[in-house]
Design a protein that fits this description.
single chain; mainly alpha; Recoverin, domain 1; two-stranded antiparallel sheet; 2 strands; binds calcium ion
Length: 136
């Protein structure tokens, strides 16, 4: 029993595994950074597309890891795994297709024109859970 507690404390101290509450906070902050234009509790395709253009600060048409990380609000241990998850062709940058098109389709379960908070939560919680379990 004591060993279990100590193991948990060590894991927390190293920031390796987060509990559900902490994951929920990450999901929430993730949504807040995406739902900005307009901030209406929904993610529209156009909204993500505009966000991509905004984050592409050097205007070269792709997001570098630094450009992606600048506005994520993600805990540092999640930045790389989340980036790598989106970078499906593994070339080290995110194209609009990787950052907007593919995630939008993946998140938008009922296929309408926007992603609801519920759809986002479902998608992102699963993603973070997956990373949380396979990290470290
Ligand atoms: Ca919105
Ligand atoms: Ca760029
Ligand atoms: Ca890529």
């Amino acid at each position: 029993m004591q060993l279990v507690i100590i193991t948990c404390l060590v894991a927390l101290a190293l920031g390796q595994h987060l509990n559900n509450h902490e994951l929920q906070q990450l999901v929430d902050s993730g949504f807040q950074t995406l739902d900005v234009n307009p901030k209406d509790g929904l993610l529209e395709h156009d909204e993500l597309s505009k966000l991509f253009d905004m984050r592409d600060t050097d205007g070269n048409g792709v997001l570098s890891k630094a450009e992606f990380a600048a506005h994520t609000g993600l805990d540092f241990i999640f930045k790389d795994p989340v980036f790598n998850n989106f970078d499906s062709n593994h070339d080290g940058v995110l194209s609009k297709d990787e950052f907007v098109e593919k995630p939008f389709v993946a998140m938008n379960q009922n296929g309408d024109s926007e992603v609801s908070r519920h759809e986002f939560d479902h998608y992102y919680t699963q993603l973070l859970h997956h990373i949380n379990q396979h990290h470290g």
